[in-house]
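Write out the 3D structure for:
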Amino acid sequence: MTLTIGKVASLFKVTADTLRYYEREGLISPTAKSSGGYRLYDDKAVRRVRFIKQAQHCGFTLTEIRDLLTLRGSNRARCRDIRRVALEKKLELEAKVKAMRSISKALDRLIAACGDGSRRVGDCPIVAALEKGQLR
């Protein structure tokens, strides 16, 4: 099976420009070009795009995805190598979640301090905290 860039793009709900970017970044490569000059992708390329999109959904950056794909293509790599990368990403995401929860709690406190919201903006505790860098 060979698909045009447009078909692959619609399959994954991305633009053709996104696929061309992936190509420039060395993440995918077309199998061939049609007589009209259109990029053609085989099943292997489609699986790579699926891998990229799923990895992005898990929070991996394109640089990290490139590393995962390199490991995927290596005969010397083992599952533990992928596991290490996934564990690092999980820890990074957990730290971000913790930071977001902290920010959410700080915003809860500021919203409560705002009371009924009838104060002038110049006296708003939210504005004051943001100006003073006291959101924590």
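The longest strand covers residues 39-41.
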